[in-house]
Amino acid sequence: MSGVLAVLEQRDGVLHKMALEALAAAQQIGAALNLPVFTAVLGGGAEALTGYKIDKIHVLEHELLKDYTPDGYTIALKQLIAAHHPTFVLFPHTYQVRDFAPKLATALGRVLVSDVISHRIEDGKTVMVRQLFQGKINADIRFEGEPPYFASIQAGAFRADTLVAGTAPIDKFAVDLKPDQIRTKPLELFRESARAVDLTAADIIVSVGRGIKEADNIPIVQKLAEAFGGELAASRPICDNGWLPMERQVGSSGQTVAPKMYVAVGISGAIQHLVGMKGSKTIVAINKDPEAPIFEVADYGIVGDLFEVVPALIEALKK
């Protein structure tokens, strides 16, 4: 059966925050090509998907899948793919996916197109778009040969709030897996040090760039963020200078965000920054240079001196 299969990551029964973004990509590709959409979950978390328009949720069950191993996940998904013959297999581009998805694709004689930011349909065929050289170049990738075609979806590239609601039946898929097939022993999971600020959870972000001129002026933009009820963020030069902590950096070497509104204050719009915030639902740019690249992606633009515009905005918001 042809279709789009989204393999969704979970941990302790809770779906990864990027899982729904991969599902959104699957729904959009499925709708464009008139293909059914399926999901695969190894372990728990399937119940959280039953409210979306999915033709079937496949839950892969086995004692050896309770802890992640690349061998276990690869063998299990190979069996599911062999049973259902999907046209596309999509993943969220997480650390775990980077570990096992290339192995899975190679085991089936295929390649994995990683970090996809968008897609389009040309002559009935899907073109995947990914970025090269830290976002300086967009590359169009067309699949050749027989499916399945594998791709991982970049964080923020597809919005979870675009998901189509519906109902989804759960199918339990029994996996044939033996202990001697698992060559690695799961150890304690790596955990990043906790961030004081998780920008990915913010609905509104006000981000400051080089146009602020000096560290002493940052409180001006901080007040705007507070007036909006949002989080303060920054482009890389601000964090490199130590004016704000690195955890507030947005961009290819910082956090990738997709808030409901992103306000860029004094940010020119270097591609490395755009990579981190292009998934924002609404983008507002404030810059005195009318030719600044940030205006090319902005939904609303204000050409003016931020030291005049920002206080006026704060005053308006207070009213």
What structural class should be given to the helix and strand makeup?
Answer: alpha/beta
Radius of gyration: 22 Å
Output the strand order for the largest sheet: 9-8-7-10-6-1-4-5-11
Q: Tally the beta strands.
A: 16
**What's the helix-strand series?**
EEEHEEHEHEEEEEEHEHEHEHEH
* Strand portion: 25-35%
CATH third-tier fold name of the largest domain: Rossmann fold
Let me know the largest β-sheet: 9 strands, mixed
Describe this structure in words.
The chain is α/β, with parallel strands linked by helices. The protein has 2 domains: 178 residues, HUPs (Rossmann fold, 3-Layer(aba) Sandwich); 120 residues, TPP-binding domain (Rossmann fold, 3-Layer(aba) Sandwich). The protein is built from 8 helices and 16 strands. The strands form 3 sheets. A 9-stranded mixed beta sheet has the order 9-8-7-10-6-1-4-5-11, sandwiched between helices. The chain has a 5-stranded parallel beta sheet with strand order 13-12-14-15-16. A two-stranded antiparallel sheet has the order 2-3. Helix 4 packs parallel to helix 8. The longest helix has 15 residues. It is elongated, with a radius of gyration of 22 Å. The mean pLDDT is 90.
